[in-house]
Specification:
2 copies of one chain form a homodimer.
Chain A: E1 3-8, H1 12-22, E2 27-34, E3 50-52, E4 65-68, H2 75-84, E5 89-90, H3 99-113, E6 116-118, H4 127-138, E7 142-148, E8 151-152, H5 154-161, E9 166-175, H6 177-184, H7 193-196, E10 197-205, H8 211-219, E11 229-234, H9 237-243, E12 249-259, E13 265-275, H10 278-298, E14 303-305, H11 320-326
Parallel strand pairs in A: 1-2, 1-4, 2-3, 4-5, 5-6, 6-14, 10-11
Antiparallel strand pairs in A: 7-12, 8-9, 9-10, 12-13
Chain lengths: 328, 328
């Protein structure tokens, strides 16, 4: 039986979900809900209704899993618990510090309604978290490193765009190759924030703007840039649109650890992602975990879960027998 | 409460388990069982009994998890089902083609006895399998690649040692850097066996042996070497003992896949291991999965499981709350 998937919120993530569902044989997209006027939302798949979110309650029996595609700052903390009272839900909540609170809110709502919820799916949190947990469990005596990039940081790009005189801007987070090499050597270096990443900005100025002022504002911006070596490039709008409209990202999770009676052996575990499209990879992960969540629900589980609670076999369209025969 | 761990079979794997248990705060080693005369087996930890396997039934109520450290060719297919009738057990069975049969045998024994069993733990099968399953579930439209090495292949080293005139030998499996680069580019190349790995042999000849004969026997050996580019180095026994007594290994699991309505985006997921000691890393994984198996048993689960069935959070000494707050 095909699992009925609906999307709430149709931006980059919603579009990614639409693509990811198409790649499955066991799921179908049944509706897209939006807070905007549905007439203004054009989706990629023919014959799928686009509806205002005010209609969503009528769909209570027609949706197996609602994928909530919203921002972590204000959308998801409100929407996910609210929707978990009516639907099985999944989201990509990625404000690491607020995960415990979000988890508690969603868990209470989902348990009360007898629904299942899965939060913080994607790659960080998500696949990177899984790799941290596996590597820590296997090598308890060791050290974790996470590097991000090269890729676009939406939050940092937004911060640059808020500076007076900036018309448009994109910020790339770049891992420092020497730091990566030092970590991979197994020497367990202590690395400062500055030693791990650099920041690279491409900025389009408004006419008559003061480049020196903008550059200084960026480089000294507290929390965002002041602890990093930052390079600022001023470019034309044409160049910006041509070369800096992508959403590539990626990163590295590395744990090095010691084993042996006298810690005589060193091991390096490395997981890395190189992604052409951050939202499409994120949502590809969401769809796999949506499948798993529905299987956990079928077993009678309710409440909130994260990627750390999911038996990996549940993510796959293949059966346990097939996985043991072909992928184990 | 400390989980009581016992080891059956005290070679490289048994020694690794002994080290790995020491790194935990929630497990203790209570006994080592051997098929040899216990008086000839010296373990590294003081005050732990070393006993002949004939005594093991007396320990039925004193062991939470029996770690079976034996070879996959003849030991484990017999020992794991036999012991699963009396103990919760875990093994490192690594003959991929025979996993379904081994699983069925162990599952029947464990279910009948109300015990839990976990088979094929380690890195391949094990962590590599997990990464194949995760990556396939997220990127269903893609291609898998596994590279091994640089590391010692025990089976190939044994095969070389069986050739007339060979006193000692070690065979390293080496991934071809150009093949790795091609895979990482996302171009999804079709690679032959020869294009993916080379084989490197270090051989000590017996006095008067014919080097040309040995080299030819190696390079033309069916299934083991004939499909590979093989380099044979003849070295002295001194050099062999000095430089080739380690058990380092490692490898790479890479999946590249496409997303987007028109497959316009490519993603590369890479997991790699660089291990100073293959048996110590393998057993470090075994101990983490032993913890998980005991938690699954406490939930009422019996029968045989693999790494694919384990919620990752169960591997950790930390609670779900701690993991969500610090590692998610």
């Amino acid at each position: 039986m095909m699992a009925k998937i609906a999307i709430l919120g149709y931006g980059n993530l919603g579009r990614g979900i639409e693509c990811a569902v198409k790649k499955t044989k066991d799921m179908e997209l049944v509706a897209v809900f939006t807070r905007r006027d549905p007439a203004t939302v054009k989706i990629q798949t023919p014959n799928i209704p686009v509806l205002n979110v005010s209609e969503i309650e009528k769909w209570a029996d027609k949706i197996d899993m609602l994928v909530i595609c919203g921002g972590s700052a204000t959308d998801l903390p409100k929407m996910t618990p609210e929707m978990a009272a009516k639907f099985n839900v999944i989201d990509t909540f990625d404000t690491h510090a607020n995960i415990p609170t979000h988890f508690a809110n969603v868990d209470a709502a989902a348990k009360a309604a007898g629904k299942i919820a899965m939060i913080s799916v994607g790659w960080d949190p998500g696949m990177f978290s899984l790799n941290r947990v596996y590597a820590n469990a296997i090598l308890p005596d060791g050290k974790d490193y996470t590097f991000w990039g090269k890729g676009v940081s939406q939050g940092h790009s937004d911060a640059v765009r808020r500076i007076k005189g900036v018309k448009n801007a994109k910020q790339y987070t770049c891992p420092v190759p020497e730091a990566l090499d030092a970590v991979r050597s197994g020497s367990m270096p202590e690395l400062t924030t500055r030693q791990k990443h650099t920041r690279l900005c491409y900025v389009v100025l408004e006419e008559g703007a003061d480049a020196a002022y903008v550059e200084n504002e960026i480089k000294t911006m507290k929390n965002y840039f002041d602890e990093y070596d930052t390079t600022v490039n001023f470019i034309s709008e044409e160049e910006f649109n041509k070369n800096h409209s992508g959403l590539a990202h990626g990163g590295f999770v590395i744990r090095t650890g010691k084993t042996g009676m006298n810690n005589e052996h060193t091991h390096v575990i490395e997981y890395s992602l190189k992604l052409d499209s951050n939202p499409e990879f994120t949502t590809a992960a969401v769809i796999a975990f949506a499948r798993a969540a529905l299987r956990m629900k079928a077993e009678g589980k309710t409440g909130c879960f994260t990627v750390l609670d999911v038996p990996p076999a549940y993510l796959s369209e293949q059966s346990g027998e097939e996985l043991r025969a072909h992928l184990l």
